[in-house]
Amino acid sequence: MLSIRNLEVAYQDVVHVLHGVSLEVERGAVVALLGPNGAGKTTLARAVSGLLPIHDGSVTGGTIAWGDQSLLGLDSRARSAMGIAQVMEGRRIFTSMTVEENLVAGGFTKSARKHLRDRTEDAYAMFPRLAERRKQRAGYLSGGEQQMLAIARALMSGPELLILDEPTLGLAPSVRDYLRGVIADVNSRGTTVLLVEQNADLALDVSFYTYILEAGRVVHDGASSELREDPDIQEFYLGIHDGGRRKMQDVKRYRRRKRWLS
Ligand SMILES: Nc1ncnc2c1ncn2[C@@H]1O[C@H](COP(=O)(O)OP(=O)(O)OP(=O)(O)O)[C@@H](O)[C@H]1O
Ligand SMILES: [Mg+2]
């Protein structure tokens, strides 16, 4: 289980972004982290995968543990050796390399090397579109295909915990639906998933449990099936109330806070 307690994160030691975030991801689950731009979702993902230092960020308080082992003080390489993989925001694949070379690069940890062939075949079975394009330069793939490749590459290390940072951002609805299926599929094969999303529809649909993060704090959490039925969530995140999706910026923060905290 991933267990985060009272996490505080700052950039450049002065920009405080997370203010006491607590969150749990049970092994085998899909947990969603939902929230608007700038809430601190990516920051939390980096804190778990160990990528904060390269962004000049650091954990200034609280704990992060994977099972009974603290992750604090371990670099990203050590965390990936423990089975934690992150697909970064914006699908950072190696654009000048082929699809296959990208996959091989993802499977190049010591423990993954002996599974390279099997996992490459698994990736192609999961993403037939990548199989058709295995010799093609990754930079020429469509946005959706690049996201598939980013996920497939992360899976090459055989992670126990996969962190996905806004995997469907900017993609067409059909591709989004496809990736929703992929997430469920990856999870059904035994990988625990922490899904960072702004798309409430998708996040609440594919996850078991959801945390809502705003301005560096968890403002609401619960079973995803219950959140889907919650009138506040419907109003503010699903836009069901009057036929149109409301922009987060349009919502009066004060009113939302007051209701959730009452
Ligand atoms: N390297 C950095 N240095 C300083 N501030 C940063 C850095 N990275 C992020 N921030 C700030 O931290 C806050 C949270 O950013 P973060 O990227 O975690 O939000 P997010 O929820 O992922 O947003 P989005 O949905 O836009 O991706 C923002 O105010 C952002 O400007
Ligand atoms: Mg982000």
| Low confidence ranges | 241-250
- Compute the separation of the termini in Å: 30 Å
The H/E string reads EEEHEEHEHHHHEHEHEEHHH
Overall pLDDT confidence: 89
Q: Output the CATH class name of the largest domain.
A: Alpha Beta
Q: What is the assembly state of the chains in this entry?
A: single chain
Under the CATH scheme, the architecture of the largest domain is: 3-Layer(aba) Sandwich
Counting DSSP E segments of at least 2 residues, the number of strands comes to 10
Q: How much is the radius of gyration in Å?
A: 18 Å
Could you state the CATH homologous superfamily of the largest domain? P-loop containing nucleotide triphosphate hydrolases
Summing up helix and strand content along with how strands pair, one would put the structural category as alpha/beta
- CATH fold field value of the largest domain: Rossmann fold
Summed up, the domain count is 2
Question: How can the largest sheet be summarized?
Answer: 6 strands, mixed
Question: What best-fitting shape do the alpha-carbon axes yield?
Answer: globular
Which helices and strands appear, and what pairs or packs with what?
Blueprint: E1 2-11, E2 15-25, E3 30-34, H1 41-49, E4 57-66, E5 69-70, H2 76-81, E6 84-87, H3 99-106, H4 116-126, H5 128-132, H6 143-155, E7 161-165, H7 173-188, E8 192-197, H8 200-206, E9 209-214, E10 217-223, H9 224-229, H10 231-238, H11 253-261
Parallel strand pairs: 3-8, 3-9, 6-7, 7-8
Antiparallel strand pairs: 1-2, 1-4, 4-5, 9-10
The structure holds adenosine-5'-triphosphate and magnesium ion.
